[in-house]
Amino acid sequence: MTILVTGSAGHLGEALMRVLRGAGRTVRGIDIKASDFTDHVGSVADSALVRHAIKGVRAIIHAATLHKPHVATHGYSEFVETNINGTLNLLEAAADAGVDAFVFTSTTSAFGSALTPEPGAPAAWITEDVTPVPRNIYGVSKVAAEALCELFARRHGLPVVILRTSRFFPEADDDAGIRGRYETANAQANELLYRRADIEDVVSAHLAALEKAKEFGFGRYIVSAPTPFSPGDIQELRTDAPSVVRRRFPDCEALYAERGWKLFPSIDRVYVSALATASLGWKPKYNFRHVLSCLRRNEDFRSPLAREIGSKGYHETVFADGPYPVA
């Protein structure tokens, strides 16, 4: 079965291409950038290119997108062209070709303002049942693309699985305050408690979705490292998150202290990926317990795949005041 991966020169796209090739799968990549993992150079917004690239393909993983860091550098029409029109091009070509599976990489950013509770309110417990309230063109474009995916599943019989992935980028946080108070590894270790996944686990979720798409017909899942928290924790997470963490991981304090690391004082949302693990048979390996195990052995907690790919960034330009501009 030939698999098409869009965004093959990007962080997730390259990871997918590496893993699929390593498993001996027949895979081809499409991206606007030439790379060792790009077979077709061009945009998914080019319908003729898409139809050429899809010939003989039985499954599609659509990871190409303009991201949140592009909000400050790209116009609304560019987001519409790539994230909405590009997705529509792929869906139409996939439906016409009768492909067996279409996996769409979406984002937890689609939840938007639903992720930020009012002052004094408990942390938001984010499951697939939460209604998105997009706060920028990135979120709007991804929610619109999701709606197109669902339309093609319901009306055209195209097997589609949508994965709302949490953070997996290796770059430092775009929040200058976080960068100033926490080294990158410290911040990203903390995020594995509630809003981050390792790239290896994100890849395995996509491959699990490929296998289940035809059986399910349609599905939408959050992909994030399994959280150790429960709904009973959400009030205290907002006011004293370290106490909640230390109750579950008593050795965390000493392991962090050895490195001068700190837990976040407050957590405002928790992504819940239980449905993905239960329904897709997804088995993520990289969570906060794994982080602490690595700290005991003085090892890097990132997966070998994450270390191999490294940092790609989102722009050709290097910005003086952060990893990327903030809108």
From TrEMBL:
PANTHER family: BIFUNCTIONAL POLYMYXIN RESISTANCE PROTEIN ARNA, BLL0593 PROTEIN. Residues 1-181 form the Ketoreductase domain. The lineage of its organism: Bacteria, Pseudomonadati, Pseudomonadota, Alphaproteobacteria, Hyphomicrobiales. InterPro entries: Epimerase_deHydtase (IPR001509), KR_dom (IPR057326), Lipid_A_modif_metabolic_enz (IPR050177), NAD(P)-bd_dom_sf (IPR036291). SMART domains: PKS_KR. SUPFAM superfamilies: NAD(P)-binding Rossmann-fold domains. It comes from Sinorhizobium glycinis. This is NAD-dependent epimerase.
